[in-house]
Specification:
158 residues, alpha+beta
């Protein structure tokens, strides 16, 4: 029997954490000759920062799903059963960030629209799948999932 598990990666560590991971790798190379044990610890910490992400696995054959966090390529999360999937839907939300200047009291607020995809089960439970700032890119990610699960993809953003 050909079992297919759908894995949707939702979010990873932000770019700042990945920058710190890159710096840790550079430091580990510079300390390799003198402190090999410190280099190993720094490489493990860097790989931890590079590989950390969250996501959802859906096993349509066994009617199970798992929301997980993954660190160092190990996925941690509980598997739950479901009866059926009603649909996948996309919602839009505003995300704002206020930035203050260093030497004055003025500030600027930047607002973006973020698009999030959710999966709705037939019992009414909803789980977050993934999100993007570009709606077309989000549709490209979740449309194959909707086709594979044989459910409707609904765009609630208008």
């Amino acid at each position: 029997m050909n079992e297919k598990v759908i894995d949707i990666k939702a979010e990873s560590f932000p770019w700042q954490a990945k920058l710190i991971g890159a710096l840790l790798l550079i430091i580990s190379l510079s300390t390799l000759a003198s402190y090999w044990w410190l280099s190993i610890i720094l490489v493990i910490a860097a790989v931890f920062l590079f590989t950390g992400h969250s996501g959802t696995e859906i096993d349509d054959m066994n009617k199970t799903f798992r929301e997980y966090n993954s660190y160092l390529f190990v996925k941690i999360g509980d598997t739950k059963k479901y009866n059926g999937i009603e649909r996948i839907f996309i919602n839009g939300s505003k995300e704002s960030q206020t930035i203050y200047t260093a030497h004055t009291t003025s500030s600027s607020t930047f607002t973006n629209i973020v698009y999030d995809a959710y999966l709705k089960f037939d019992n009414g439970e909803k789980i977050f799948l993934t999100g993007r700032k570009d709606k077309q890119k989000l549709i490209q990610v979740v449309n194959p999932v909707a086709k594979s699960l044989n459910v409707e993809l609904v765009d609630n953003t208008g």
